[in-house]
Design brief:
globular, FAD/NAD(P)-binding domain, single chain, alpha+beta
Length: 419
């Protein structure tokens, strides 16, 4: 039976499974309307969160989310789902900390288990320059009220016993920036949770609906064209990753974004032993362990622009060498699979959010390797910007015009391989 909150009881779940009954759809399929108040392009965490908060916080429910594939099939389904807020600039720290706060309460908000797990986040320093950067970041974090501190090798070893903290290694660990609130989450559960919640509030979710053009009249957006027909809409939001420049070009808006592949890999499952997220910017590697016991590895973006999402042997070889520099005891573990996603990089490693010279056309793009962390706060702030026709303070530093005005928000020291 289903209780009054719409949840299945344990007995009803077992009974339903044994009967091999058809499960109800998590969200509905709709015919494409000829007009919507808001069209969101991109069915990942950013697009779905924007639609959800438009409906929940502002009562705007005549919203369509369009995705050329399936929901969560882009960057949201290809990332390593690490969460943190220990960035380098005050603007970045405040922004990502709000997102982390929303993530902590997301399961209750969406009535969906997103499997958030607070693990602690360690950014290792292997030389004096890195250690100075860690101290710099720690002070910026503390000024913003963020729990972040530099710890010594003995404390690192206590948190992660499998790390080689001796001084005989090629890359000795001199210390680390320790961020206790950091952790991991189930990325597909976040997508499903936002999709189901947005659907229940009346938002239309359209999969396999590719945008082929954006209509602009007198510097004002009037609608979009898709492979399923045209839609009239006074507001269009670009929440895509990988193809964000292509969508922006359709509206006549140029953005300083370059697209690079980012590869990752996962091992066979083993008994849980890694209880923190470990990152090394010097070695260009990061690792965490899932609740199922797999180790998830990633690195920096590939050194060339491409739309390819295929893994490479070169990546695996480099990854294995760097991981074993940190934890030699993993030498017998087997990789199960590898994959790649697309990252839109801006010159200052910060996103582009808000209005554009085309009235009614909004951007939520340029997230590089850290877009999933910002999903909730991006959706919340973009919904506020659309509903109030004003730019929220929390994203005011991320406007497109900052590149022309020279007011960059330099996050490279915390975002290049910051995961």
């Amino acid at each position: 039976m289903i209780d009054r909150n719409g949840k299945y009881s344990a007995i009803s779940l077992i009974t339903h499974g044994l009967r091999k009954s058809e499960w109800p759809r998590a969200w509905r399929a709709h015919d494409l309307r000829k007009s919507y108040d808001v069209v969101v392009i991109g069915g990942g965490v950013h697009g779905l969160a924007t639609a959800y908060y438009l409906a929940k916080n502002h009562g705007i429910t005549n919203v369509a989310v369009l995705d050329k594939g399936y929901l969560g099939g882009g960057g949201s389904g290809r990332n390593t789902a690490i969460l943190r807020s220990n960035y380098l600039t005050p603007e970045g720290v405040r922004f990502y900390d709000r997102s982390l706060e929303l993530y902590r309460h997301l399961a209750a908000d969406l009535n969906f288990n997103v499997m958030f797990s607070r693990r602690g986040h360690l950014t290792l320093a292997h030389n004096d320059g890195s250690l100075r950067t860690m101290r710099w970041r720690a002070e910026v974090n503390k000024l913003q009220g963020i729990d972040s501190q530099v710890i010594d090798p003995a404390q690192v070893k206590e948190l992660v016993p499998h790390l080689d903290t001796s001084d005989e290694t090629r890359y000795p660990i001199l210390g680390a920036l320790y961020h206790p609130p950091g952790g991991i989450i189930r990325h597909d559960a976040v997508v499903w949770g936002y999709a189901r919640a947005a659907d229940r509030l009346g938002v239309h979710l359209h999969q396999k609906t590719e945008v082929t053009g954006i209509d602009v009249v007198n510097e004002r957006v009037t609608g979009v064209r898709t492979n399923r027909g045209a839609i009239s809409a006074p507001i269009v939001v670009n929440c895509t990753a990988g193809w964000s420049t292509l969508i922006s070009d359709m509206a006549g808006v140029r953005t300083p974004v370059q697209t690079f592949p980012l590869q990752a890999a996962v091992t066979e499952p083993v008994r849980p032993f890694l209880h923190a997220v470990v990152v090394s910017g010097t070695l260009h590697v990061y690792v965490s362990q899932t609740d199922r016991g797999e180790l998830v590895f990633g690195a920096s973006v590939d050194p060339f622009q491409s739309y390819s999402m295929r893994g490479s042997l070169e990546f695996v070889e480099g990854l294995a060498a760097h991981v074993l520099e940190l934890m030699p005891g993993l030498s017998q573990m087997r990789l199960l699979r590898q994959w790649a996603g697309l990252c839109d990089m801006t010159p200052d490693y910060s996103p582009i959010m808000g209005t554009t010279p085309v009235e009614g056309f909004y951007l939520d793009v340029g997230w590089g390797t850290y877009g999933f962390k910002a999903g909730p706060v991006s959706g919340e702030s973009m919904a506020q910007a659309i509903a109030t026709r004003s730019t929220p303070e929390i994203i005011s530093a991320f406007g497109l015009d900052r590149f022309a005005e020279g007011e960059l928000v330099g996050e490279k020291g915390a975002a290049a391989v910051g995961h």
